[in-house]
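Cont'd.
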Amino acid sequence: KAGVTQTPRYLIKTRGQQVTLSCSPISGHRSVSWYQQTPGQGLQFLFEYFSETQRNKGNFPGRFSGRQFSNSRSEMNVSTLELGDSALYLCASSFDRYGFTEAFFGQGTRLTVV
Amino acid sequence: AQTVTQSQPEMSVQEAETVTLSCTYDTSESDYYLFWYKQPPSRQMILVIRQEAYKQQNATENRFSVNFQKAAKSFSLKISDSQLGDAAMYFCAYRGSGNTPLVFGKGTRLSVIA
Protein backbone atom coordinates (compact mmCIF):
# COMPACT_ATOMS: atom_id res chain seq x y z
CA LYS A 1 0.00 0.00 0.00
CA ALA A 2 1.48 3.34 -1.02
CA GLY A 3 2.10 5.85 1.76
CA VAL A 4 1.26 9.52 1.90
CA THR A 5 2.88 11.31 -1.02
CA GLN A 6 3.75 14.96 -0.94
CA THR A 7 4.95 16.91 -3.93
CA PRO A 8 7.21 18.61 -4.52
CA ARG A 9 9.81 17.60 -1.94
CA TYR A 10 11.70 20.87 -2.19
CA LEU A 11 10.68 24.31 -3.35
CA ILE A 12 12.39 27.69 -3.51
CA LYS A 13 10.20 30.74 -3.99
CA THR A 14 10.66 34.50 -3.90
CA ARG A 15 8.91 36.80 -1.45
CA GLY A 16 5.54 37.86 -2.78
CA GLN A 17 5.01 34.80 -4.93
CA GLN A 18 2.43 32.13 -4.28
CA VAL A 19 2.91 28.39 -3.96
CA THR A 20 0.77 25.26 -4.12
CA LEU A 21 1.69 22.07 -2.32
CA SER A 22 0.08 18.72 -3.00
CA CYS A 23 -0.72 15.75 -0.81
CA SER A 24 -1.99 12.35 -1.92
CA PRO A 25 -3.27 10.37 1.08
CA ILE A 26 -3.20 6.64 1.56
CA SER A 27 -5.88 4.97 -0.54
CA GLY A 28 -9.15 4.88 1.37
CA HIS A 29 -8.20 7.64 3.80
CA ARG A 30 -10.67 10.51 3.85
CA SER A 31 -9.04 12.84 6.36
CA VAL A 32 -6.08 15.01 5.45
CA SER A 33 -4.36 17.42 7.83
CA TRP A 34 -1.60 19.92 7.18
CA TYR A 35 1.10 21.06 9.61
CA GLN A 36 3.86 23.64 9.42
CA GLN A 37 7.12 22.66 11.09
CA THR A 38 9.79 25.24 11.95
CA PRO A 39 12.72 25.07 14.39
CA GLY A 40 11.31 27.88 16.47
CA GLN A 41 7.60 27.07 16.60
CA GLY A 42 7.70 23.30 16.19
CA LEU A 43 4.69 21.63 14.58
CA GLN A 44 1.69 23.88 14.13
CA PHE A 45 -1.66 22.78 12.79
CA LEU A 46 -2.83 24.50 9.62
CA PHE A 47 -6.10 22.82 8.65
CA GLU A 48 -7.91 19.54 8.28
CA TYR A 49 -10.16 18.31 5.51
CA PHE A 50 -12.57 15.44 5.63
CA SER A 51 -14.63 14.37 2.63
CA GLU A 52 -13.87 17.65 0.81
CA THR A 53 -14.93 19.84 3.75
CA GLN A 54 -12.65 21.87 5.96
CA ARG A 55 -13.36 20.65 9.49
CA ASN A 56 -10.71 22.44 11.51
CA LYS A 57 -8.49 25.44 10.94
CA GLY A 58 -5.42 26.56 12.85
CA ASN A 59 -4.36 30.07 13.74
CA PHE A 60 -2.78 31.10 10.46
CA PRO A 61 -3.49 34.16 8.29
CA GLY A 62 -5.84 33.99 5.34
CA ARG A 63 -2.86 33.72 2.99
CA PHE A 64 -2.88 30.04 3.86
CA SER A 65 -5.68 28.10 2.25
CA GLY A 66 -6.40 24.59 1.19
CA ARG A 67 -8.86 22.29 -0.44
CA GLN A 68 -9.62 18.62 -0.84
CA PHE A 69 -10.80 16.89 -3.97
CA SER A 70 -13.28 14.08 -4.37
CA ASN A 71 -10.44 11.54 -4.53
CA SER A 72 -9.23 12.85 -1.12
CA ARG A 73 -6.10 14.44 -2.57
CA SER A 74 -5.45 17.79 -0.97
CA GLU A 75 -3.65 20.95 -1.89
CA MET A 76 -2.57 23.86 0.21
CA ASN A 77 -1.82 27.29 -1.16
CA VAL A 78 0.17 30.11 0.33
CA SER A 79 -0.17 33.48 -1.34
CA THR A 80 2.07 36.54 -1.01
CA LEU A 81 4.91 34.52 0.48
CA GLU A 82 6.91 35.95 3.36
CA LEU A 83 10.36 34.95 4.57
CA GLY A 84 8.74 33.52 7.70
CA ASP A 85 6.81 31.01 5.63
CA SER A 86 10.01 29.04 5.10
CA ALA A 87 9.29 25.72 6.74
CA LEU A 88 8.70 22.03 6.33
CA TYR A 89 5.05 21.45 5.46
CA LEU A 90 3.75 18.06 6.53
CA CYS A 91 0.60 16.35 5.41
CA ALA A 92 -1.04 13.55 7.37
CA SER A 93 -3.85 11.26 6.35
CA SER A 94 -6.10 9.02 8.38
CA PHE A 95 -9.06 6.79 7.70
CA ASP A 96 -11.41 8.80 9.86
CA ARG A 97 -11.39 11.74 12.20
CA TYR A 98 -11.78 10.00 15.52
CA GLY A 99 -9.32 10.57 18.30
CA PHE A 100 -7.46 7.27 18.44
CA THR A 101 -7.02 6.90 14.72
CA GLU A 102 -3.40 6.79 13.60
CA ALA A 103 -2.29 9.65 11.38
CA PHE A 104 0.17 8.68 8.66
CA PHE A 105 2.56 11.41 7.59
CA GLY A 106 4.23 12.18 4.31
CA GLN A 107 7.87 13.17 4.02
CA GLY A 108 6.96 16.80 3.72
CA THR A 109 7.68 19.66 1.37
CA ARG A 110 10.61 21.87 2.31
CA LEU A 111 9.69 25.43 1.29
CA THR A 112 12.37 28.10 1.23
CA VAL A 113 11.34 31.71 0.65
CA VAL A 114 14.13 34.05 -0.45
CA ALA B 1 -6.28 25.42 24.71
CA GLN B 2 -4.40 22.22 25.21
CA THR B 3 -0.63 22.41 25.43
CA VAL B 4 2.06 19.76 25.34
CA THR B 5 5.44 20.32 26.95
CA GLN B 6 8.60 18.35 26.36
CA SER B 7 11.17 19.71 28.79
CA GLN B 8 14.20 17.92 27.34
CA PRO B 9 15.30 19.46 24.02
CA GLU B 10 18.08 16.89 23.70
CA MET B 11 18.90 13.52 25.22
CA SER B 12 21.56 10.95 24.62
CA VAL B 13 21.79 7.26 25.47
CA GLN B 14 24.37 4.52 25.06
CA GLU B 15 23.49 1.73 22.72
CA ALA B 16 21.65 -1.10 24.53
CA GLU B 17 20.79 1.15 27.47
CA THR B 18 17.39 2.52 28.49
CA VAL B 19 16.26 6.12 28.14
CA THR B 20 13.09 7.93 29.21
CA LEU B 21 11.70 10.96 27.40
CA SER B 22 9.37 13.24 29.34
CA CYS B 23 6.10 14.79 28.28
CA THR B 24 3.49 16.73 30.21
CA TYR B 25 0.25 18.18 28.91
CA ASP B 26 -2.43 20.52 30.02
CA THR B 27 -6.10 19.79 29.42
CA SER B 28 -9.46 20.10 31.09
CA GLU B 29 -10.87 17.11 29.19
CA SER B 30 -11.24 13.71 30.78
CA ASP B 31 -11.27 11.73 27.56
CA TYR B 32 -8.37 12.14 25.14
CA TYR B 33 -5.58 10.37 23.32
CA LEU B 34 -1.83 10.61 23.58
CA PHE B 35 0.81 9.69 21.03
CA TRP B 36 4.55 9.50 20.61
CA TYR B 37 5.86 10.12 17.10
CA LYS B 38 9.41 9.62 15.84
CA GLN B 39 10.91 11.80 13.12
CA PRO B 40 14.22 10.48 11.77
CA PRO B 41 16.46 12.55 9.48
CA SER B 42 14.36 11.40 6.54
CA ARG B 43 11.69 13.73 8.03
CA GLN B 44 8.84 11.23 7.87
CA MET B 45 6.90 11.12 11.12
CA ILE B 46 6.22 7.60 12.33
CA LEU B 47 3.84 6.63 15.11
CA VAL B 48 5.71 4.89 17.91
CA ILE B 49 3.01 4.28 20.46
CA ARG B 50 -0.40 5.59 21.55
CA GLN B 51 -2.49 5.61 24.69
CA GLU B 52 -6.17 6.15 25.38
CA ALA B 53 -6.69 8.22 28.50
CA TYR B 54 -9.48 6.03 29.86
CA LYS B 55 -7.19 3.00 29.88
CA GLN B 56 -5.14 2.73 33.06
CA GLN B 57 -2.82 0.11 31.62
CA ASN B 58 0.32 1.57 30.09
CA ALA B 59 0.76 0.90 26.38
CA THR B 60 3.70 -1.19 25.19
CA GLU B 61 5.10 -1.79 21.71
CA ASN B 62 8.14 -4.07 21.74
CA ARG B 63 11.03 -1.99 23.17
CA PHE B 64 8.83 1.08 23.61
CA SER B 65 6.59 1.62 26.59
CA VAL B 66 4.89 4.57 28.25
CA ASN B 67 4.34 5.66 31.81
CA PHE B 68 0.93 7.34 31.76
CA GLN B 69 0.06 9.26 34.89
CA LYS B 70 -3.34 10.80 34.26
CA ALA B 71 -3.61 12.76 37.49
CA ALA B 72 -0.17 14.28 36.96
CA LYS B 73 -0.89 14.77 33.22
CA SER B 74 2.36 13.06 32.40
CA PHE B 75 3.09 10.73 29.48
CA SER B 76 6.73 9.62 29.32
CA LEU B 77 8.26 7.29 26.76
CA LYS B 78 10.74 4.59 27.76
CA ILE B 79 12.99 3.07 25.13
CA SER B 80 14.70 -0.12 26.22
CA ASP B 81 17.76 -1.71 24.62
CA SER B 82 18.38 1.45 22.58
CA GLN B 83 19.55 0.95 19.02
CA LEU B 84 21.36 3.25 16.60
CA GLY B 85 18.18 3.40 14.53
CA ASP B 86 16.33 4.99 17.44
CA ALA B 87 18.22 8.23 16.91
CA ALA B 88 15.61 10.80 15.88
CA MET B 89 13.39 13.62 17.04
CA TYR B 90 10.59 12.37 19.25
CA PHE B 91 7.34 14.27 19.51
CA CYS B 92 4.67 13.85 22.11
CA ALA B 93 1.17 14.66 20.82
CA TYR B 94 -2.30 15.10 22.28
CA ARG B 95 -5.69 14.83 20.68
CA GLY B 96 -8.96 15.56 22.42
CA SER B 97 -12.11 13.52 22.05
CA GLY B 98 -13.96 16.10 19.98
CA ASN B 99 -12.33 15.42 16.62
CA THR B 100 -9.72 18.05 17.31
CA PRO B 101 -6.33 18.11 15.60
CA LEU B 102 -3.13 16.74 17.05
CA VAL B 103 -1.27 19.14 19.32
CA PHE B 104 2.47 18.51 19.38
CA GLY B 105 5.21 19.25 21.84
CA LYS B 106 8.42 20.91 20.65
CA GLY B 107 10.23 17.59 20.48
CA THR B 108 13.25 15.87 22.03
CA ARG B 109 16.26 15.08 19.91
CA LEU B 110 17.60 11.66 20.91
CA SER B 111 21.17 10.66 20.09
CA VAL B 112 22.30 7.05 20.44
CA ILE B 113 26.01 6.55 21.16
CA ALA B 114 27.67 3.38 19.90
